[in-house]
Specification:
InterPro entries: Cro/C1-type_HTH (IPR001387), Lambda_DNA-bd_dom_sf (IPR010982). This is Helix-turn-helix transcriptional regulator. GO terms for molecular function: DNA binding. By secondary structure, this protein is mainly α. The protein has a single domain, classed as 434 Repressor (Amino-terminal Domain), CATH 1.10.260.40. The protein is 57% helix and 0% strand. The chain is built from 5 helices and no strands. Helix 2 crosses helix 3. The chain is globular, with a radius of gyration of 11 Å. The relative contact order is 0.21.
Length: 76
Protein backbone atom coordinates (compact mmCIF):
# COMPACT_ATOMS: atom_id res chain seq x y z
CA UNK A 1 0.00 0.00 0.00
CA UNK A 2 1.34 3.44 -0.90
CA UNK A 3 1.89 5.97 1.85
CA UNK A 4 -0.78 8.31 0.48
CA UNK A 5 -3.29 5.50 0.06
CA UNK A 6 -2.64 4.48 3.68
CA UNK A 7 -3.20 8.07 4.83
CA UNK A 8 -6.39 8.39 2.80
CA UNK A 9 -7.93 5.02 3.65
CA UNK A 10 -6.69 4.24 7.15
CA UNK A 11 -6.18 7.67 8.71
CA UNK A 12 -8.85 9.86 7.05
CA UNK A 13 -11.14 7.00 5.92
CA UNK A 14 -12.34 8.91 2.86
CA UNK A 15 -12.64 8.42 -0.90
CA UNK A 16 -10.10 9.80 -3.36
CA UNK A 17 -12.49 12.64 -4.21
CA UNK A 18 -13.00 13.55 -0.55
CA UNK A 19 -9.25 13.39 0.10
CA UNK A 20 -8.62 15.59 -2.95
CA UNK A 21 -10.97 18.22 -1.52
CA UNK A 22 -9.10 18.11 1.81
CA UNK A 23 -5.75 18.60 0.08
CA UNK A 24 -7.01 21.20 -2.39
CA UNK A 25 -6.19 19.11 -5.46
CA UNK A 26 -8.06 17.04 -8.04
CA UNK A 27 -9.01 13.40 -7.64
CA UNK A 28 -6.60 12.67 -10.50
CA UNK A 29 -3.75 14.08 -8.38
CA UNK A 30 -4.62 11.74 -5.52
CA UNK A 31 -4.73 8.83 -7.96
CA UNK A 32 -1.24 9.78 -9.24
CA UNK A 33 0.09 9.99 -5.68
CA UNK A 34 -1.29 6.55 -4.91
CA UNK A 35 0.36 5.19 -8.06
CA UNK A 36 3.77 6.38 -6.90
CA UNK A 37 3.85 10.15 -7.24
CA UNK A 38 4.27 12.47 -4.30
CA UNK A 39 2.43 15.54 -3.08
CA UNK A 40 4.29 18.85 -2.94
CA UNK A 41 5.30 20.37 0.37
CA UNK A 42 2.30 22.72 0.20
CA UNK A 43 0.00 19.76 -0.41
CA UNK A 44 1.56 17.86 2.50
CA UNK A 45 0.92 20.90 4.70
CA UNK A 46 -2.71 20.97 3.56
CA UNK A 47 -3.08 17.27 4.45
CA UNK A 48 -1.46 17.83 7.84
CA UNK A 49 -3.78 20.81 8.49
CA UNK A 50 -6.82 18.74 7.48
CA UNK A 51 -5.79 16.12 10.04
CA UNK A 52 -5.38 18.79 12.71
CA UNK A 53 -8.76 20.34 11.85
CA UNK A 54 -10.36 16.91 12.36
CA UNK A 55 -8.45 16.19 15.60
CA UNK A 56 -6.63 13.30 13.93
CA UNK A 57 -3.38 12.45 15.67
CA UNK A 58 -0.73 13.02 12.99
CA UNK A 59 2.67 11.49 12.23
CA UNK A 60 4.74 13.01 9.38
CA UNK A 61 6.52 9.70 8.79
CA UNK A 62 3.29 8.44 7.19
CA UNK A 63 4.17 10.52 4.11
CA UNK A 64 7.26 8.39 3.60
CA UNK A 65 6.74 5.01 5.31
CA UNK A 66 3.45 3.25 4.77
CA UNK A 67 2.92 0.14 6.88
CA UNK A 68 3.71 -3.15 5.16
CA UNK A 69 0.22 -4.46 5.79
CA UNK A 70 -2.92 -3.18 7.41
CA UNK A 71 -6.02 -5.14 8.46
CA UNK A 72 -8.34 -3.75 5.74
CA UNK A 73 -6.03 -5.04 2.97
CA UNK A 74 -6.69 -8.62 4.02
CA UNK A 75 -10.38 -8.15 3.25
CA UNK A 76 -9.76 -6.99 -0.34
Amino acid sequence: MSAIRFIRREIFQVTQAEFAALAGVTQASVSRWEAGGAPSLDEMQAIRKAASDRAIEWNDTWFFDAPVAVPSEAAE
